[in-house]
Design a protein that fits this description.
Elements: H1 14-24, H2 27-31, H3 33-44, E1 50-54, H4 62-67, E2 71-76, H5 79-92, E3 97-100, E4 112-117, H6 129-141, E5 142-152, H7 155-161, E6 165-169, E7 175-183, E8 188-197, E9 200-209, H8 213-222, E10 226-231, E11 246-251
Parallel strand pairs: 1-2, 1-4, 2-3, 4-5
Antiparallel strand pairs: 5-11, 6-7, 7-8, 8-9, 10-11
């Protein structure tokens, strides 16, 4: 595992993950994880072995993978998320390896049959070259013939559905105001999360690099992946004008 030091960025603030958790991971999103993982296994054809859930969050996909018999490693830099993941695994009596690490630092050579990067857990870094570093790390961590599946919000989808602002309210009255803007010639989106809970407001700003389908394909191929396929849903719909997500499936060559 690499041990590089990185300057603090927005995602290093665990308060952000704590405060936004109820909005990011409502009960319904957690409950459909098993179905999502089943579809991932159908897409990849991989039904066993070792799996890496990169940026695993609260273990949403790690637990179903372990239930299918995979030897699962969940990596996340957030202690808050990993504590929740550990508690869920204990409750389900599942054995999962949890590692707290910046994904730029995690490499385990030729270790995994399957790697997942779900729920737009890619493109966090100010330096876009570090996105390629992540893909290189994943490529190195896969066994020959292994599959990598990632899910992000593609640039084309965001262009179609972008709202400058939106409001969400939880049953307990906590309210989230989101304000979004595109910067750097459509290469990044900046979102302000303003959360009001019991009369107190907190603001967090997140920055994500944006990729079109073609740009993501090129990044994956540059990292060494082959047979890259793009899809618009986890049900294998094409990546076209009706796509809901940008899902990329890529393979590490066997030779």
């Amino acid at each position: 595992m690499n041990k590089r030091k990185h300057k603090p960025e927005w995602f290093d603030n665990d308060a952000y993950w704590r405060e936004t958790f109820p909005f990011m991971f409502p009960k319904e999103r957690m409950e459909i994880a098993a179905e999502t993982v089943e579809k991932v296994l159908g897409i990849t054809g991989i039904r066993g072995g070792s799996a890496l859930d990169l940026c695993c969050g609260p273990g949403r996909c790690s637990l179903p993978l372990a239930s299918h018999g995979f030897a699962v490693t969940g990596v996340d830099r957030s202690k808050f998320f990993l504590d929740k993941a550990r508690a869920s695994a204990r409750s389900a009596k599942l054995k999962i390896e949890w590692i707290q690490s910046d994904m730029r630092n995690f490499v385990r050579e030729d270790a995994f049959n399957l790697v997942l990067s779900m729920f737009t857990s890619f493109g966090y870094f100010e330096d876009r070259d570090e996105d390629l570093l992540i893909l290189n790390n994943i490529f190195r961590s896969l066994r020959p013939g292994g599959a990598f599946l990632m899910e992000v919000l593609g640039k084309e989808i965001l262009a179609r559905m972008l709202q400058d602002s939106s409001v969400s309210t939880l049953p307990d009255g906590t309210t989230l105001f989101e304000q979004r803007k595109i910067i750097d010639d459509w290469s990044r989106v900046v979102t302000d999360w303003n959360i009001i809970r019991k009369g107190k407001a907190r603001k967090f700003t997140i920055r994500l690099n944006l990729y079109s389908g073609q740009e993501l394909r090129e990044k994956l191929e540059l990292a060494g992946f082959s047979n890259v396929k793009l899809m618009g849903t986890i049900d294998r719909a094409p990546y076209d004008s009706q796509a809901k997500r940008l899902i990329a499936l890529a393979w590490k060559p066997t030779d």
